[in-house]
Structure formats: C-alpha cells, structure tokens
Design a protein that fits this description.
The protein is α+β, with helices and mostly antiparallel strands. The protein is built from 13 helices and 23 strands. Strand 8 and strand 9 form a beta hairpin. It is globular and about 85 Å long.
Length: 463
C-alpha cells in the first residue's frame, strides 16, 4: 500500500469574513451561551436570531434554509436599497410584483382555513392598505408621511427629488440632505404610539378578529413560513415566547410602486404623451406573508453541540430531550446516524469543520477553518466494521462505482477518504445504544488515489 501524500488545503481567492474562534468548551467561560433548538419534521431548527449568529459564527454549524450557507436572507431587494439610499429609511424595500406574490400566498393560506372569497378579500385589503409612515424631527415633533415619491429615470431631472405627501394631499418638497439631518425613523414595532396597528378602526378590528380565527402558521414540506397575523398566547419557555412574539409582530415594508404623471397636465397637444413621466414612490404597507430565515442543523451537528459541547438544548414540542433520547430518536430518523456521527465527532475533534457531503455522493466534507475560507479538502465515506474489517457495509462499492466516485471527487479538487470505524468484536448492541460506545471505537483512515502507470514508472526510474 502506497503512503498517502497530504496536500495543503486550497484557500479561496476572495474571503469576505473574519475568522472567529470555535465554541468554548468551558461552561464557566464568559462567552458561553446555551442555545435553543427544536425538532420539526425530523429536522433540527434554530429560530432565535442570537442563537443563529452564535452557532454559525463559532464553528459554522448549520445552514440557512433560505441562503446558500450563512443565514443572511433578507426580503429587501439590494438593488432597490441602493437606489433609494438617500431616503434614510431603515426598512425593507421590495418591488410591487414581489409584494403581490406575498399577497397571493396569504390569500391561498386564508382560503385553506375555510373562509369565503369575500372575507379573504376584505381581510387582505384591510391588512395591506397603505399606512402613514411616522418620522421624528430632531426636536421631537412628529410628522407623518403617506409615501415617498421620486421622479423616474425617464425624466429630465435625474436628481433625487423627494416629495413626502401627507394624508391630506399636501406636498412638501425636501432634499436628501434635509431628510438626513431633520428626520429620524420612529421605531414602528417598539413603540405603540407609532404602531399603525394600535390605531385600528372598527373595520380593522373586525379584520383582526377574522384573522385571529384564521391565524396562519404553516409548516409545509419542512419549510417554516408564517403569516404576519397575531397568534394566540402559548405556554412555552420564555426564550421561545420572545422569538414567537417577534415572528407574529407585523412586518412593515416599503413597496416601490409606479404611477403615471405629466410634466404639463394642461397641454392637450400631440406632444402630451411625450411629457408623460413615470414616477416611482415608496408606500409603507404591512407584509401579509412573512418568510423567516432559520438555521437548520444536521443531526450530527445538533448532537455534537448537545453531547460534546453542551451548549444546545433541543426540544420536541415543549419537552427538552436528553442525550440518550436524542441518540435513540436520531438513530430512528437516520438508520446510519451512529456511523456518521462517530466520523463527525472524530474529525471535529481533530479541528476540521465537517459538513454534509451529499452534493458529492459522500457522507462528509472536511473544511479547514470553515467553508468561507477554504475549499473542502476531503470527501469522506464512513463505514462501521469489526476487527477484521468485515461487516455489513452501508455502501458496498464495486470497482466501477469507486472509480466514478473518485473521478467526481478529483474533478472537484478534493480527495476521497474512506473512514473505517472499527468496532470491537465483543461490543454488544446494548453498548451501542448509548454514545459512550465511542470510547471503544477505533478509526482507520484510507485515502483513495488514482494509480497512473506512467507516473509510477517515472518515479521508479528516478529511484
């Protein structure tokens, strides 16, 4: 057997993140934090934004369900944010088309609750109608504005000219400089005095009663999607209540809408159409269908955080699960969980950052420091065998399948590694029912490389 040649990890050319140290193991440390997670549809989900940031930053655990890797999904359109950067409004900005998609989703969910079309239309119209956007001047005087208008790119005046129109229709022109100096956005969700939901009329109150009947909290196909309606009070833990209160609070968004205007409205000549300009305005509305970014942990990552680091508590419903219960539940959900977790635990302890290797047809991918800094160095297949390297293999590989898998791995600039977890012959199934069995497990790594005859001959000639 040839000796393996270890290649240095391949660093990524562009790195936009700074490296943070992994989780502290000492529970008495000042940086230690107990995070909360829950099992939903056989998946481990972290919902608290502070826990999400903590878990991903210190060890790159999990993946955002709406993002490629780091959970940074935002409903706001980056192009629109850059376009309206002079507005000095710290609120999500979306297009009218995207907002209508959220409206349609909310309608379909309400129809599934058994409401008739008339009630659904009334609820949606009352909930999504334009709201007055509160501003505060530096001296504390409040001024309300219904929407922010700006001339479109087709006009001759390309300068960013804002027009804040009040509810009575009066227009007050202000420059971006005056807005930046004279206005500060009120906290819509923090202060009830500036919450449009706090001054609802009788019609909106009726709409709220209907929405309470048809409260939407849908969990479909593993995706956690919630509507912006108010949910009933629950008896869960305080941390879960805080998260749910944030989720059920209305989300205010600025919708960019277009309206046709004319520079010369009194001109009835043939050139009237040429004078038509396209005005774009930002209208404050409530989002009827909120989509939240959650952190999804693999079963191996979740159990490592609970068992090895002790910094995560996993609940099913309202009941926190013990380590032995998690070992049992995860083994039922994923039959090969014990094998893959042993490999995960071993490589994590060696300083690697293991991630799911499903993309390349393997069990794990090994990263140095984390995915933002280096490409994966190894694709790992884990197998549980006895002292004689025999046993029922999970993935019996033929020479043909092994060659194809190795070619796929090499084409991605990685190396294929076979990780054999050697189980003593006298170990019983009862011992395997607890994670303490890992103390008697030995690990043997084997790197698979392609044998090239010409290269072998050249090396022999040099010797």
């Amino acid at each position: 057997m040839a000796e393996a040649v270890f290649h240095p990890p391949r660093r990524k050319r562009r790195v936009f993140e700074s490296y943070e140290s992994p989780f502290p193991v000492d529970v008495g440390g000042k940086d230690f934090r107990m995070c909360q997670a829950e099992i939903i549809n056989n998946n481990v989900i972290v919902r608290n934004p502070e826990d999400i940031e903590q878990l991903y930053n210190k060890g790159y655990f999990g993946k955002g369900i709406l993002s490629r890797s780091r959970p940074v999904y935002s409903i706001s359109d980056p192009l629109l944010v850059a376009k309206w950067q002079g507005a000095n409004i710290n609120m999500p900005i979306i297009t009218s088309k995207k907002y209508q998609c959220h409206v349609q989703w909310a309608k379909s969910i309400l129809q599934e609750q058994g409401l008739d079309d008339c009630s659904v239309t009334k609820i949606i119209e009352n909930y999504t109608k334009p709201l007055e956007l509160p501003f505060l001047e530096e001296d504390g005087a409040e001024q309300t504005s219904h929407s922010c208008n700006r001339m479109g790119p087709n006009t001759e005046n390309t300068e960013l000219s804002r027009e804040c129109s009040t509810a009575t229709g009066n227009v007050v022109a202000r420059s971006p400089e005056n807005q930046n100096e004279g206005y500060k956005k009120a906290c819509l969700e923090g202060d009830a005095a500036f919450d449009p939901m706090a001054v609802r009329g009788s019609e909106e109150q009726e709409q709220g009663d209907l929405k309470e009947r048809a409260e939407v909290s849908c969990q479909k196909h593993g995706f956690l999607v919630h509507c912006g309606c108010k949910a009933k009070e629950s008896t869960e833990q305080r941390s879960c209540e805080m998260v749910k209160s944030n989720e059920c609070a209305p989300e205010y968004v600025l919708v960019q809408e277009e309206e046709q205007g004319s520079l010369c409205p009194e001109d009835d000549s043939a050139h009237a159409q040429e004078n038509l300009v396209k005005k774009e305005r930002l209208v404050c509305r409530r989002n009827p269908f909120r989509i939240f970014e959650y952190l999804q942990l693999s079963l191996e990552e979740a159990f490592f955080l609970v068992y090895a680091l002790g910094c995560l508590s996993i609940c099913y419903g309202e009941e926190p699960l013990t380590i032995l219960k998690l070992w049992e539940v995860f083994s039922e959900v994923k039959p090969n969980f014990k094998t893959t977790y042993m490999a995960y635990h071993y490589f994590r302890s060696k300083g690697w950052v293991p991630k799911v290797g499903l993309k390349y047809g393997t069990d794990l991918l090994l990263y140095r420091k984390g995915p933002p800094f280096y490409h994966a160095s190894y694709s790992v297949i884990a197998e549980l065998v006895d002292d004689n390297f025999e046993g029922p293999l999970r993935r019996p590989l033929s020479w043909k399948s092994l060659s194809g898998l190795n070619r796929t791995t090499v084409n991605a600039s990685k190396e294929l590694m076979l990780c054999y977890l050697i189980r003593p012959s006298d170990m019983t199934e009862k011992e395997m029912s607890t994670p303490e069995c890992m103390k008697r497990i030995k690990v043997q790594e084997l790197i698979v490389t392609r044998w090239v005859s010409s290269r072998e001959r050249n090396e022999q000639d040099e010797l």
